[in-house]
Write a structure and sequence with these properties.
The complex is a heterodimer of chains A (about 400) and B (about 150). Chain A is of the alpha/beta class and about 400 residues long. Helix content of chain A is about 40%, strand content about 15%. In chain A, strands 4-10-9-8-7-5-6 form a 7-stranded mixed beta sheet, with helices on both faces. In chain A, strands 13-14-17-16 form a 4-stranded antiparallel beta sheet, with helices on one face. Chain A has a two-stranded antiparallel sheet with strand order 1-2. In chain A, strand 5, helix 5 and strand 6 (about 145-150) form a beta-alpha-beta unit. Chain B has a 3-stranded antiparallel beta sheet. In chain B, helix 1 packs across helix 3 (about 80-90) and helix 2 packs across helix 3. Chain B has a single domain (about 5-140), classed as Sufe protein. Chain: A, CATH 3.90.1010. Classes of the chains: A alpha/beta (about 400), B alpha+beta (about 150). At the A-B interface, helix 12 and helix 14 of A face helix 2 and helix 3 of B.
Chain lengths: ~400, ~150
Amino acid sequence: MSSDNRIDIENIRSQFPILQRKVKGKTLVYFDNAATSQKPQSVIDAINNYYTTYNANIHRGLHTLADEATAAFEATRAAVKEFIGAKESEEIIYTKGTTESINLVASSWGRTFLNAGDEIIISTLEHHANIVPWQMIAEEKGAKLRVIPINNDGIIDMDAFKSMLNEKTAFVSIVHASNALGVINPVEEIIQLAHDFGALVLVDGAQSAVHLDIDVQRLDCDFFAFSTHKTYGPTGIGILYGKRALLESMPPYQGGGEMIKEVSFEKTTYNELPFKFEAGTPNIADAIALKSALDFIHQYGKSTIRHHEEMLLRYATSQLKQIEGLKIIGDVENKVSVVSFVIDGVHPQDLAILLDNQGIAVRTGHHCAQPLMSRLGIVGTTRVSFAIYNTIEEIDILIIALKKAITMLK
Amino acid sequence: MSSAKSIQEIEASLVDDFSLFETWEEKYEYLIDLGKKLQPLEEQYKTEQFKIKGCQSSVWIHSFHQDGKIFYKGDSDAVIVKGLVSLMITVLSGQASQVIVDAPLDFINEIGLSSHLAQTRSNGLRAMIRQMKLDAVTLQGIGSRE
């Protein structure tokens, strides 16, 4: 880890082959990192190496390839445990992504422990993935979904949250950092307050896991969900952390191979954690490659990465603010490296098309957070999000391209 | 309003227009200009009933029937998409129902806008074309989409 918080940006960029590619004849400027980050060569190599040298189904095979694949698959689980500060590897469940992690909890825990009249609390900032699963289970169980309001900057109303908590509150599912605005929620306080009322808390870490130091034991969250394709890792792999006692008490999410101890037509007994929740052959290659992504992050250290991203965030924010008619949505101190903005008289979709023609990838639209957009009274935003490999020069390119697009559109 | 030109002739002339531009900037500026100059759609038609929802922008199409031909007016909240609406209206408005239904509309790929503009589901172009063709069929026997 670098001690002076400086990184060798050229060396880092050279590890991401995709950054060399041209888009519309220009060198790609990739500012859609909140949707998915690009992958370093080490991650790409790990996938390739797995299929080239030790592809095998894991856990049951009694041969060398199966042993090697199993060892690598479980080594990643141990690395994830360290990455988020869990107590035991058994508390780390592989899923397809944040969405499946949340669905697993809503379905398995919700179906077993929710009662009619119970209340589930989410916030206005949530991604659809942390709204719809709860709506579905609330409807099924006759529970009530309640939503914490926010102010115009996207900051959660903690007084409102406190007043919503009561003996009926069974579950709080809250986003750690907003995907649409970047705003960071005070999850530690939220967890403590919820626990005072005996409610469980799931933290949606899709946007926070790559930027913030995560220590699930210190946070004391009951569940933590994230997707590894946003942490320089492969797509199709996500993590659900859950406290062991809770995971033990929950029934399996899906039935099949891998998750059983013994099967007969009369009665099936289930496997131990974490396998109880991992029915079927998992995404072995991507799970193995995930370790390379975590190693990549460790190599620099999150504080160094965060320092670099905050520098980009501050620079971009100050440059964007100088553009006439541009308004940053969620212009607050405490946020991850995401800038979301609207421009008077300019539709975000028009902007995205004209930026793409200049080789710049940004995200526009409602960011799968339609209730948030409607609360803010906008159809969508243009979102620029940074990763370790982005540079000040790229922001300069963006600003010039933005001004050009605005001139063309106005 | 009625057009003496065939769809093929109109498409060819649009492809010609766009071929005069050498850079993507000129092509898009022209498209944006078409969007801005599009004959406005009366407010009464900018409702849910006439809306075609794309992923990111909205398009409103009002279709009506006159002297055996189908006519269209439209709008969008995104100006580039409005330019596309304008192109579609230029090509299809004033044609016979069956001609509209059968139109392959190849010109979209030939005018040299970025391929994603022509193909992606996000700008609602496909949905727009589908609705215009559907309206042409419906209106053949009735009067207008109400």
